[in-house]
Amino acid sequence: MKKAQDIILRPIITEASMSGIANKKYTFKVANDANKIEIAKAVEELFGVKVKKVNTMNVPGQYRRQGMHGGYQPDWKKAIVTLKDDSKGIEFFESMM
To answer: What pTM did the predictor assign?
Structure first.
C-alpha cells in the first residue's frame, strides 16, 4: 500500500490549470503507476476534500539538447481532480488566486 505522499507528487501551476480552479478542478503530477481510485483517495486524505472524478493522462517527455547531444526527459502522468460541489476548495490553490 502506497502512502498518499508517494502518489501525489506535486501540484501543477500553469495558466491553464489555474483557470480550472473556478470549476473546482485541480491539476497534479502523480506517480506513473497510480490509478484513478488511488489518486482520489490520496487527494481526499491529504487535503480533506470530497472527490467527484479523476481524469488522468500520460505526458510524453520532451526532447532536450545539451550542445550536440540530445535526449528525452522522462514520461510522467498528470491527473485533473474534480471536487464535489459541496466540498471545500484546496487552500494551497485558493491562496494563489
So the answer is: 0.90
